Amino acid sequence: MMGLIQPFLIKEAIMTVNFKSNEAEARENRLGSITGYYGTLRDLGKQAGCGGLRDKERCYSQASLCNAACALSQLSFITDAAIVHHSPAGCAVTAMAVSNSKDQLAGKLNLDNSRSCYVSTDMNESDTVFGATDNLRDVIRETYNRYKPSAIFIGASCVSGVIGEDLESIAAEMREELDIPVAPVHCEGFKTKIWASGFDAAFHAILTHIVKPPEKKTNIVNVINFFGSARKEITEIFRELGVEPLFLISNTTIEQLSRLSESIATVSTCGTLGTYLGNGLSDQYGVPYVKSLQPHGIAGFESWLRGLGKVINKEAEVERYLEREKAKYLPKIQEVREKLKGLRAVVGMGPGFNFNTTRALQELGIEIVYSAAWHFDKQYDDGQAPDAFRYLLDNSPNDYRLSVSDLQNHEILNILNEVKPDIFFSRHTGSTVWAMKLGIPALCVFDEYAIFGYRGLLNFAYSVYDVVTNRSYTENLSKRVKLPYTDWWFKQNNNHFLRKTS
Length: 502
Description:
alpha/beta; four-stranded parallel β-sheet; 21 helices; 15 strands; globular
């Protein structure tokens, strides 16, 4: 199986993070990413490796997500930055999604986020005809006067993009007037079908408008993650290695972000999330980006820590820590593994968490019978295929069925009804509840650190065991709910959902 990796050595010394560009190129164009595929794990690997992978389109799409939501929600968690979304009010629904989480996280960490906000310019029909740059200037000024943020991010929208609003010029004017960074975020929804492109748009704005050249080197390790629920554990681990974590970008300040170039290394908990910022810091400022599996389960945790240890010359300290933790947790993991061995599972997540979670499930003896990735990156910004995907190609005990489905609920239910797994795993509560309506136990793995390291894998295994053995709620729900999908729909072949090849 080792020969399967070789086709993925696509390019060397690649630099796809273009600091001279005003925006990050969409993943479809930059990385060759797709949202439509049907086949198997190793067939996908073969097609991606030989250059034969082609995206497929849908004649019908039930649901998806806008890349602006990913871009602006990430930036919203900066404690002293303001978001001005140049959009109709409806586009700013992201503000409702992040407001409570942002306040709760800041409160738990005793941080003051009173200088952060998310506002909309509330574009209307008249604005789409005559333009709204004057209103945008006024909103930016009022936002600054009210909140005194350390930086302002101007988020684009489909409407402002279609009518050609010049956000770059407005940002330049307001930077000079307010004397703070004012950065455009080019996250128009129509530019990409892959919502993860929004992460890249946000990080491009940070890399090009916030990060400064280094004045000195520190012992800080950048940890690219979403919310940082394992701050305590990671801080303790890194202390043993003589370094300090900086969790990005949730609950950071503009001052901290401006000094990312001074860090000793960068790691991530999700390759999808981390590729643009990690590789950008490496390309532009020489901050090593640790290329490894993400820290989910046994192999991932060891790869992640060993990769960091090698970069910061702390390999001996890492091995001592791993040996101590193995003795504590691996025997217990083996015990619960015997209870889970043979379970059949379906996984539906974004590709970064999908492939890492799949690996951890296989470590618990769970058979993956189907996997749905919301998109697929055949390579990251270093020109190499995702490590988590390559690991599965070489180590998965079975060549399971796999599709790329863009979070299409009607496809997921068709798959679940056909495969009838013992359990369904997703990172979206909206998916798990539909599985339960079919009578299939489901577990939402929303927390990115739910399977972090040996202890996380053990606790996760207990959660899985609880879900598959306590089925009364799922069974009662399925008996009392009428699904909107007919028998005719459930008899459709999943492959028929993808008809056109672009």
